[in-house]
Amino acid sequence: MTVIAGAVPIVSLPAFPFEPQYVWSIIDVSLYVSGLAIVFSTAVSLPVALLLGFTEFRGKQFLQAIINTGMGFPSVVVGLLVLFAVSNQGPLGGLDLVFTREAMIMSQFVLATPAITAISLAAVSGVEENVRDAAHVLGGTRVDVALVTIKEARYGIATAILAGFGRAISEVGSVLIVGGNIASADGVSKTRTLTTAIQLEARQGRYETAMVLGGILLVIVLLINAVVVRLGEGGVMQ
Amino acid sequence: MMELDGVTHTYDTAPVVEDLSLSVESGEVVAIIGPSGVGKTTLLRILALFIEPQTGTIRFGDTDVWGCSDGERLALRRRIGMVFQEASLFDATVGRNVEYGLKVRRSWRDRLSDGLSEVLRSNGTPETVEEALGVVGLGEQLDQHAKSLSGGEAQRVSFARALAYDPDVLLLDEPTSDLDPRNTAVIEEAVAEARNRGIGVVIATHDMHQAERVADRVAVLLDREITEVGPTDTVFESPADERTAKFIDGELVY
Amino acid sequence: MPIQRRTFLAAAGTGAVAGLAGCSQILGGNDQTAGVAGETLTLTTTTSTYDTGLLGELNGPFEEMYGVSVDSVAQGTGAALETARNGDSDVVMVHARSLEDEFMRNGHGVNRRDIMFNDFVIVGPEGDPAGIQGMASATEAFTTIANSESMFVSRGDNSGTHTKELLIWEQAGVEPGGDWYQETGTGMGEALNIANEQGAYTLSDRGTYLSQRSEIDLVILVQGPIEGGPETLANPYGIMAVNPAVHDVNYDLSMAYIGYITSPQAQDLIDGYRANGEQLFFPRALSEDPDFQQYVPEGWSSNATSG
């Protein structure tokens, strides 16, 4: 009896307020949406950064201005613009994208791309000209030179990508508008992310449960930042 | 094998090089001497097909390099190697650096499967890479990271990198101006080795003694123009041009 | 009877598979039903039906029965109707009759049905600085709050609750404004929290208030009609299909949903739904006597349009 009594915790921890399946599905949606958005953003950002970094063309300054403006774009405005685009009445209305993960990916893509482009641009601009020349004289094509540039700037680019991911996964305004924060009746998230789930809990005044979800989001963001810092240090050390 | 004829190149409005004519044959070392800032680098970049000059023609074999297709020009470009004044190594191991020229010459399909075996760590280093590093005495440093090399070693790796894919023409732009005598000697020996292999070498240098040591022929570049070309001994001992003579005697100070 | 239907479909499916065993590749996974199975219904609704947990309770059996999924998007009444107006939802469940009527008159909504009702209550701090406790008239209570300039929190979000609140101010002949009147632009739960923090009055639907009562100190000062309060505070919920003649929507499924929500089964679920031991909503769809007004805008008559 005494042994058992000793095992009883002195402070009773509050019970985890959600079904694990519910929380996992929310994490899953968050990572899926932000992850894919970042893949597409990166695929667009890197060529644009290389273009801006190493070529002269008409409209370059304009493009640069768009990117700089885009970095500070409020997410709710992006959400509204994407909503107008994908709404039944909008230009992409036929695709039935309102309240889907695809629409959320679109809006996060719009949000993350300028940031990834700008940070990548700084990274690739730092690659020495003579290293690029070396790739060229050794027989590299334009693509080879671009690949060398990316490889040389890899730490900075990794930082850019992870910073973009951080922005995407912590963002609530646009995914709420275009995603609709939907979970099915059996408690599986469809378009509910960590941030919109937090918003839902807060709306109902359930701040404690909102904090639990906030903690999970915080852990994810901290992990990402830890990776960024490590990579950044690696870049400096090399 | 490679020949410039009446080449003029202008940056903005000021000509940098004017009416240059020069050739290099296989198994020959041509030194371009002249004071700093006289256009030696521009001349080498024209030879490397980096820059298309405004006037004049450049022939590689029988081909006019700026009169052919992009694909043909790429193929010609890949028969040229170049070493810059700075080592300009990639942020990778010595082996990866020297391998680069061979890698870009492979088809994308092969490069992808190379990448795969790289991940599986199942591919060895091509023989020519080790061999090229052997020429500059760094055969053992294959797995060392480029950033950990001394300046002299880095420049030797840079030389091996240009040699590894066995070019027909090797362009050296002041390759030893930042190096100590020991590393300079290694590079000069490597130049001799390249010549023995039948490679046509063009070396730009401001060091006349180096030109005397390594070159078969010398071209003197003064005031944007080639004032004299000829066998090394002739140019140094009995220059025909007055300015050349002054330059060689050290009277012409720029 | 839905259970029977499912059994029948399952049996038919099995028969089809047995009879066409050689063609099972062609049939793929679609041999169960040729109907709506696998489709998705988008429902835009109010935060009050969603946040009280009622919708989850109602939608589960529907999804089960038809093999479909219901995407419930919880917005304010105004936003829910606006989303539907853009053709981005199939069916709307809201609680602001005037806005619903406008939605129907503009041709966006068809087949409106009453579903259920609860009521609004005026809540405030226990100390009741304005002294409205027990008043029999909502307009009188609002006038008193305005005159004493006691803190009042408004949803300010064009929701059903907000619409009702503005209606009461209008009936009271008061133009709310000034330091004591705060628009929050948030959901009911947050508005209650803000009122709680500031010791302010607010108008709340009974359901959200009850589900949150344990976490706040606000008390009911003026009851709604369920507890004998004024009829002004009634809070009826309606459901409408988005007009398929105007928008490209899943009309079949939305009518199936409306049919389900107004069926005895779902109405029983509404009647039996409890949060913190309290009944939040009262079913209203079933009636032996005809109620024609639920189908058309309030006050509509055929004479009025033909004349």
Automatic annotation (TrEMBL), chain B:
Name of this chain's protein: Phosphate ABC transporter ATP-binding protein
Entry annotated with the keyword Transport: yes
ABC transporter domain boundaries: 2-248
Domain of life: Archaea
Organism of derivation: Halorientalis pallida
Biological process (GO), any one: phosphate ion transmembrane transport
GO molecular function: ATP binding; ATP hydrolysis activity; phosphate transmembrane transporter activity
Annotated Gene Ontology cellular component terms: membrane
UniProt KW keywords: ATP-binding, Cell membrane, Membrane, Nucleotide-binding, Transport
Keyword Electron transport: no
Automatic annotation (TrEMBL), chain C:
Entry-linked Pfam families: PBP_like_2
Residue span, PBP domain: 42-264
Gene3D superfamilies: Periplasmic binding protein-like II
InterPro entries linked: ABC-Tungstate_binding (IPR052738), PBP_domain (IPR024370), TAT_signal (IPR006311)
Protein name per its UniProtKB record: Molybdenum transporter
